[in-house]
Structures are given as C-alpha cells and as structure tokens.
Amino acid sequence: MTIIDAHNHVGTIKKAHQSGADLVAKLDKAGVEKAVMFPFVEGDFSNEPIRDAHREFPDRLIPYCAVNPWNDTAVDDVRRCVETYGFKGLKLHPTIGGYHLSDPKLCDPLFAVCEGYGIPIVVHGASDLYNCPPEFALMAERFPNVTLIMAHMGFFWSVDQAIRFAIQYPNLYLETSRAPIFEIQTAVREVGADKVIWGTDSPFVDYAFEFQKMSSATDDADAYSKIVGGNIARILKL
C-alpha cells in the first residue's frame, strides 16, 4: 500500500510558508510516501516553487499547477506546466479568484485542456457560493471525462449535498482535507471508498492529526488503502 496525501501547498505567502523539504519532512515523520502539491493561490502566485520542489524530490512530490481563469494566459500556463515540466493536475480556487466554477467562459477552456491531457482538476470545495456542490455538479455533467475532485467535500454546511452529487456523477470525487471524521465516515459509507480521497491541506493543519484521523474512516482494510492512496494513484496512473 502506497500512502499519498492529495492536498498540500508549497511556496510562500504573507501568512504561510512551506518548502518542498518542509513537506517531505512531514511525510517522513508521519510515514507517508508521496504528496500532491500546488501553489498557494492568494495574490500574484507562481507555479515555479512547485516546479523546483518537484525537481528536488521527484519521487516524493507530485506537481499540480494552479491558475486564475481571469488571466488570459491561464490555458497556456496549464499547457506549459504539463508539457514542459510534467505536472500531473490542476488546482482551482474560485472563492479566492472571484469566479463561479461553472462559468463557461472562464472555466470551460481549462476543463477542456485538462480533458485533452487526461489530468484531474482539484477545486476548493467548501460551502462557499462560488464553489458550492451544485457548481461541481454542473461541471461534472458538462465534462464527464474530466476527473473532478472536491477539496473539503462541501464542509461545513453542504456535505450532504456533496455526497449526493458524488453518488450521481461517476467523475466527481470527495477529498477529505479539513473535514471532521464523522462527515468522512458518512461519505465513505454512502458514496463508497472508491470515491473518497485523503488530503491534508498542509501547512494549514496539524499534519500528524490529519493522517491519524483517517484510521477511523473505515474498518475495512481494503477501503482504507483506497482512501489514503489507492484512489489518487489510480487517477494519476502512478
């Protein structure tokens, strides 16, 4: 069983910092093999810290790019990150960026390019207006061949909605970062372990706690293996 954390940030903003080495040290301490990473998306962010951290730890850190769809270069930035640097996915944060996930002019081109590359899209998915579960449902239906991952699984007020949509759309997955264990247990029971993905959202969490809590997600060893690494490994073809 390979344990993979599907949600981490690397780089520097005014309120937080995490280097690739910082993240790998957390993985080592917790007994985690690999981690997905993407930039902090506050302000004028760059994908360069992700590129550099992947070059330093190519066997431990899995690079996703992040873009702001308002930027005219967003699609080209995704193409460059995938084709030149080997990035494996895309991160979007509609709440910080100020756009609806389902906005066809802003987000459809990004979903289309990711569909072409066969890479997943992880989106901030708390119960915020711009990225509430119905926004995911619209995109999951519009792009059935794109793997769409809802970070935070609709926490706090919209978890039930998130679960219903994850059941309805085969390409929509729920990611557990920052969600309480009761909601995670409910998702595993109702959606199934194949559709739930573990992530931490480091450095904004107690890393050890975010990993240890997953031992209570299910009593089934095979289901646990899928949640803490097997599902994201399958999606990323690792």
Short characterization:
With 238 residues, the protein is α/β, with parallel strands linked by helices.
Features:
238 residues; alpha/beta; TIM Barrel; eight-stranded parallel sheet; two-stranded antiparallel sheet; 10 helices; 10 strands; 43% helix; globular
The major beta sheet can be summarized as: 8 strands, parallel
CATH topology-level fold name: TIM Barrel
Helix content: 40-55%
* Spatial shape: globular
Assembly annotation: single chain
Number of helices in the DSSP assignment? 10
Protein topology:
Elements: E1 4-5, E2 11-13, E3 16-18, H1 20-30, E4 34-37, H2 48-56, E5 61-66, H3 74-85, E6 89-92, H4 94-97, H5 104-117, E7 121-124, H6 133-142, E8 148-151, H7 159-168, E9 172-175, H8 181-191, E10 196-197, H9 207-212, H10 221-236
Parallel strand pairs: 1-4, 4-5, 5-6, 6-7, 7-8, 8-9, 9-10
Antiparallel strand pairs: 2-3
Helix pairs in contact: 3-5, 6-7, 7-8
How would you describe this structure to a colleague?
This protein has helices spanning 20-30, 48-56, 74-85, 94-97, 104-117, 133-142, 159-168, 181-191, 207-212, 221-236, and strands at 4-5, 11-13, 16-18, 34-37, 61-66, 89-92, 121-124, 148-151, 172-175, 196-197. It has 238 residues and is an alpha/beta fold. It has one domain: Metal-dependent hydrolases (TIM Barrel, Alpha-Beta Barrel), CATH 3.20.20. The strands form two sheets. An eight-stranded parallel beta sheet has the order 1-4-5-6-7-8-9-10, with helices on both faces. A two-stranded antiparallel sheet has the order 2-3. It is globular. The chain starts with a strand and ends with a helix. The mean pLDDT is 97.
